[in-house]
Automatic annotation (TrEMBL):
Pfam families: Ald_Xan_dh_C (PF01315), MoCoBD_1 (PF02738), MoCoBD_2 (PF20256)
InterPro entries: Ald_Oxase/Xan_DH_a/b, Ald_Oxase/Xan_DH_a/b_sf, Ald_Oxase/xanthine_DH-like, AldOxase/xan_DH_MoCoBD1, AldOxase/xan_DH_MoCoBD2, AldOxase/xan_DH_Mopterin-bd_sf
Domain Aldehyde oxidase/xanthine dehydrogenase a/b hammerhead: 35-149
Protein's UniProt name: Aldehyde oxidase
Top-rank taxon: Bacteria
Organism: Pseudorhodoferax aquiterrae
Amino acid sequence: MSALPINVQPVAEPGTGYVRKGDGVPRVDGRVKVTGQARYAAEHGAPDMVFGVVVSSTIAKGRILALHLDAALAVPGVVQILSHLNRPRMRKLDLFYKDMTAPAGSPFKPFHSDGILYSGQPVALVLADTFEAARYAAALVQVDYAQEPHETHLLSHMERSHKPSRLKAGFSPPPNETGDAQAAFDAAPVQVDAEFYAGAEHHNPMEMHATTVLWGPDGHMTVYDKSQSSQNSRWMASHVFGISKRKLTVRNPFVGGAFGSGLRPQYNLILAMMAALDLKRSVRVVLTRQQMFTFGHRPETWQRVQLAARADGTLAAVLHQAIAETSRLEDYVEVVVNWSGQLYRCDNVKLDYRLVALDHYSPIDMRAPGAAHGVHALEVAMDELAHAAGIDPLALRLHNYAERDPQTDMPYSTKELRACYEQGAERFGWSRRPTAPRSMREGPELIGWGMATGQWDAMQMFARAHAVLHADGRLVVSSAASDIGTGTYTVMAQIAADALGLRLEDVVFRLGDSTLPVAPIEGGSSHVTTVGSAVEGACEKLQRKLFALARALPDSPFAHARLSDVQFAEGHLVLRNATVPTALSLQRLMAQAGVHRIEAKHLLLPNLLKQKRYVRATHSAVFCEVRVDEDFGTVRVTRVVSAIAAGQIMNAQLARSQIMGGVVWGISQALHEESHVDHSLGRFMNHSLAEYHVAVQADVHDIDVLFVEEDDRIVSRLGAKGVGEIGMVGVAAAVANAIFHATGRRIRSTPMTPDKVM
Ligand code: MOS
């Protein structure tokens, strides 16, 4: 083991100074990440640690008849091989358990029985004193199977689709039909009827899923798990193994990307803990890049969108159907079609969403789940409608703009989508777009301009934050939040520094530990609205305590002031509008009052009574230029303008990075990403980033992000709505629409690879 410190706490560079909410501050965890001081789940260890390597099933359905382990057990250094045959008894594994984000159904239970439910399922865990021995021995394990026929091809089994179960928080089934959509469609002069298809996609974060269990002398386990919530991992593991939370701490201080793959604890957590409990030793289990294709993915989805309009472009009918895959175990659900009833005004709307259970592992949320498919199909169909009606695509959207939510007739908490359209179009130069496809060319390249709308939910959950101001002027704020690369460390410290007028380098934000105050899973772009509001609430309580101390000082100049008369700025409590300048440093205040620390706790509960009177969403308008090589069918996305309405922005630099990342992801969805199944094997065949293509530097050109002014005090006290997923919604549609404008070819399946474009 190297001598690197284990518990690195990110903090701003000295000299960063005083910051306000909204300032473009570089991330405080940047230096520890690029210098290798930040340790990820698989980088923790202990001197006597055992290394676990997973053996994966090679069939998609059937039973294990025999495990041949002699050769593997004979490898020097091999300590144990666990499987369904010899796993330790576990309190809940035999019964039923769920993590906090599990969909309806019965979760996959590793090593539960001899049954094989999907290809890649873990069937054995080889444990050895070295990683090399474990890996070699794992390759020697032979498995005899009784194979049964499997079904992994969505399009072949759509006739047995079923309505999804509703038992999942945050899932809204499609609303009932309004008007008579089919009759209105049939009667309208302009019609579009289009089918869309998207294959499965895998998250492929840089950091592989991994769990390190550190076995303490008293049997206490400290578990480093790649997760979007340390408390979710802790909660599930304590239930499965019947361990009290006092004996189990889960940490995720650094996460190398997740994009939803860490919303549910993966099988590496269960297997590593099973081994640690069995051997009473520290254990590390890291999945291989190939095994990153053996758990949740964005589901393969088929869609049909029918849109109809009057001759002037007024929407007359919207019909949107989606059929997506799920597993035999669970009804994984996402909101795919509902957006089509929300984005535009229309009296006749019919939406339908169904699932087909296949012999794959359950899908899992992946960046902008549901919207990535549903809004894509709607926004490509809207482009088709604009073309059919001979109307500019932006003009068509403005003509059908929804001032209130069309489904419920409720007001939006805020909706500055019109400003997104206007400012984005202006920045892009949309008014210079020739209407006809194939109008722009430069050498062998056809040039096209396309646009699309995006929408994502603006959510708030509940969280606690704990803030302690020390006599030396340092503020420590904590909450069991996560930073999956999104900037949580930075933004939370920034909100706290702003509230108390402290230098950013004097504020420490602690996260990524299940023993910290409760925080939700980092998902749904809700960490700022939730944890950020809790942090601000705790800091406001500190303000009140400090002010009370100041008023109580002998001959206090604040004796007759009210809280609204003072501000916290540059390390001081300042009396506003005072005839004589009056400022008292917080350190002197604490010294004079004789206190060493002041602390405050805040529980942030969303104001549901107020919130539920509004529809809460973020919005975007995406404009894009593509250049298509006519001979090769290759597409370059040369210019993207993304105009975002997401309420108050807490950190201009990090929010811009979030949106840029979303745009890159959208380009990736549009042009590159697809997991391929060999249906004779029932297995995802992509094994690495060599065959699973993601957008790389060469695929990304000019990305221009602008935030329109918006302030939403209904979604959060900060005025923020959350950035993250909104950055990708609509991007792939804008690319598809630009390809149509360039080439006259309408492509309705992603990724839009050269074979489809040519
Ligand atoms: Mo996101 S798919 O909520 O991690």
